[in-house]
Amino acid sequence: MRYEWLDEQVDEIIRLYVDEDQSMQSIADEFDVSSGTIRKRLLENDVSTRPEGSRYVWLDDHTEDIVERYTEKGESLQTIATNYGTSADAIKRRLLESNVELRDPPSEPDDLGFTPAQVSIVVGELLGDGCLYQMESGSCVFQVTNNKREHVAHVKRRLPDGLISSGQPYSVTRSNAFTDGDYTQWVIRSRVQPLFRELYDSWYESYEDRHRKVVPENYKLDETALLHWYWGDGNCILRDSGAPRVSFATHGFPEDSVKTLQSELESLGYANYTVKQKGVTNGSGLGIRLRDGSSRHFIGQFGPRNVVSEYDYKFPTVER
Questions:
Q1: Residue 17 and residue 35 in contact, taking contact as beta carbons nearer than 8 Å
Q2: Nearest-CA neighbor of 142 among 183, 109, 174?
Q3: Count of CB atoms within 10 A of residue 211's CB?
Q4: 24, 17 in Cβ contact below 8 A?
């Protein structure tokens, strides 16, 4: 049963699960549905789920460090939350419980606050065609460019309200270097946020006369980021045998970054290997492919979570 009336309660379900640390079962009890129904709604909205019964109680063991980061090092709620993989509200609650007087939030730029799932969405897009632009002031904005309007519109919906203006996405028509025709791309560009400046410091490095994207050595890939990475820079083909071949276009990343992503895919249970592409001058030229069994598992795992109909071709029906 779909429980269509729950569609109007999705934001509240996400808030209770992510910001209030409630379990799926407690949310299910509140809405008088099963925990499986709640889990499905969370996955449909790019929210990585945690093992049932696991709340952010482990943050209690880090209260002293959280207080020190906030009071002595001057870190923002969002910076601390990103470090611990939780929400700014969860950090705020720990500080209030420790009788810490909160600072007034910065007025320029306003820190909108990102949930862990929203940070994962941004990072997943960075693994694909998303990018961060650093302005002369040092502040950074986030941009996604894609030839699928539905993709960028979905990203906009899942990020904080007010981050991207109401007139977006907007289209840009460019000349195709390989044909005589033109092609259209869709773009969303954010307002300035402290989080983007922090991400820029770890996800970009100086390279010759410019900056290029890299993957931090300590980066931990999760399912939300993986799905957005695949949407942006992944592909699947069905071979004559009927076996799928899932691949990720990581050719532009340096070799160390590709190795980090390989390791993270392995940690999520996806065996993989690299394939060298000739003629790549601004990266390692290494693309990542999942092995046959892992490709089947990946399509079976993420196919039901694909909410961008324009990407149905990336999740073909696989016959065993």
A1: no
A2: 109
A3: 15
A4: yes
Structural tokens at position 109: 């730029």
37 φ, ψ (degrees, to nearest 5): -65, -40
Question: How far apart (Å, rounded) are the C-alpha atoms in residues 92 and 80?
Answer: 10
Per-residue DSSP letter, 104: P
Tally Cβ neighbours within 10 Å of residue 32.
Answer: 7
Task: Give pTM, 2 decimals.
Answer: 0.75
Residues in the chain: 320
Please confirm whether the linkage preceding 51 is cis (ω < 30° from 0): no
Alpha-carbon span 215 to 220, nearest angstrom = 10
3-class DSSP assignment, residue 188: strand
**What distance, in Å, lies between the first and last C-alpha atoms of the chain?**
27
* d(C-alpha 195, C-alpha 14), whole Å: 21
Residues 6+ positions from 54 with CB-CB distance below 8 Å:
none
Amino acid at site 138: G
Q: How far apart are CA 196 and CA 207, in angstroms?
A: 20
8-48 pLDDT, tens digit each? 788 888 888 877 777 787 788 777 788 888 888 888 887 77
Question: How far apart are alpha carbons 180 and 165 in whole angstroms?
Answer: 33
